[in-house]
């Protein structure tokens, strides 16, 4: 649940785009940067403020893969499971991340909201396999031990 101050932040974002409903995608992108996902209350507020139907804004938010209606952690981990990474043992890395963060098939965000894990088909760094990214920073030639050390470093920095 968002506090009432979300309206101030969202109004600032809308104002930066000159209250122009033609810039709805840019507005939604900026909102997602702010919250790490698209809260339903915010989408409704934007639609009402810009006089856009709720169905239209929801359609935009669900059409584009980069938008998320689910809350994500501060750090987005992408684990490559493309062919090159898979044959170079990305699965043990995936398992180490899930074990360390206490995640499951139905839970991909850590309880402390620091990490969200996503599996992707390819990160485009096949020569560096196995690869993960955290917030779009590439970490090559990962091992289960190295990934746990990396996550510990991120947790320590968050404190």
Q: What does this molecule look like?
A:
48% of the residues lie in helices and 11% in strands. The chain has 159 residues and is an alpha+beta fold. The protein has a four-stranded mixed beta sheet with strand order 2-1-3-4, with helices on one face. A hairpin with a 2-residue loop joins β3 and β4. 21% of the residues are buried. The model has no long low-confidence stretch (mean pLDDT 92).
Summarize the structure.
The protein has 159 residues and is of the alpha+beta class. It has seven helices and four strands.
Query: What fraction of residues sit in β-strands?
Result: 5-15%
Global morphology: elongated
* Major beta-sheet overview: 4 strands, mixed
How would you name the CATH homologous superfamily of the largest domain? Glutaredoxin
Which structural category fits the helices and strands? alpha+beta
Radius of gyration: 18 Å
Share of helix, binned: 40-55%
Strand count: 4
Number of domains: 2
Please report the number of helical segments. Answer: 7
Q: What's the pLDDT, averaged over the residues?
A: 92
Q: What is the secondary structure topology, with strand pairs?
A:
Elements (H helix, E strand, L loop, with lengths): L5 H11 L7 H12 L4 H11 L3 H10 L11 E6 L2 H5 L2 H12 L13 E6 L11 E3 L2 E3 L4 H15 L1
Helix pairs in contact: 3-4, 6-7
Descriptive labels:
2 domains; 4-stranded mixed beta sheet; Glutaredoxin; 159 residues; alpha+beta; 11% strand; 4 strands
């Amino acid at each position: 649940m968002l506090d009432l101050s979300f309206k101030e932040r969202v109004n600032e974002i809308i104002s930066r785009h000159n209250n122009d409903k033609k810039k709805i995608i840019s507005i939604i992108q900026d909102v997602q940067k702010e919250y790490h996902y698209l809260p339903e209350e915010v989408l409704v507020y934007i639609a009402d403020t810009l006089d856009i139907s709720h169905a239209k804004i929801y359609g935009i938010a669900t059409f584009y893969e980069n938008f998320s209606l689910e809350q994500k952690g501060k750090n987005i981990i992408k684990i490559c499971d493309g062919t090159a990474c898979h044959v170079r043992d990305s699965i043990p890395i995936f398992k180490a991340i899930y074990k360390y963060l206490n995640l499951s098939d139905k839970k991909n965000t850590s309880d402390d909201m620091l990490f969200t894990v996503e599996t992707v088909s390819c990160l485009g760094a096949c020569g560096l396999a196995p690869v993960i990214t955290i917030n779009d920073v590439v970490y090559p030639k990962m091992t289960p031990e190295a990934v746990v050390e990396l996550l510990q470093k991120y947790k320590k920095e968050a404190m």
